[in-house]
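Data card: per-record layout.
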Amino acid sequence: MGLVHDEDDDIELLAGRAEEFGRFYLRHEDAILMFFLRRTRSAELAADLAAETFARALEGRRGFDVSRGSPRGWLFGIAKHLLSDSVAGGRVQDAARRRLGLERLAVDDDALARIDELTGGEALEALEGLTVEQRTAVEGRVFDERSYEELAARLRCSNSVVRQRVSRGLRVLRDRLEGLA
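The structure for this 181-residue chain is written out next.
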């Protein structure tokens, strides 16, 4: 699991030499990987997207502006834009990795085991067991951190329906995961 992060230290790491960026990477690697894994359900794709996210962050670290938010928020902004661009383009955008001369990540059995350990493979399986409506509401609220109002508009239903779907979905997940313990 990545190291606990300190926002002030993250700001210094982004302003420092490229060699210091490795500490920033280690602090946020797991969170970024999980962000992509939850959305893509593919370890290989999540690893590719995470690598490109950090390559873009390394390239653009001098453009980070603390007045616009936290380093972690900035990093997740890069990740969200990359995911959106990659979905629209139908492939992982890897221009920053290529410019920096970084090779494509090889996701071997050890890496897949680590990713499975991070996710608790049972949790993703339990999520797949929800109804489509529940899964969409839970993912939108919990993973994407969308408001109930935003989800209601997106799903074309009322706030109370979204709240019920999230509540029921989380209850089903909790019950299934407790049954595995």
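Known properties of this structure: The chain is about 75% helix and 0% strand. Residues 7-118 form a domain with the Rna Polymerase Sigma Factor; Chain: A fold (CATH 1.10.1740.10).

See the next section for split statistics.
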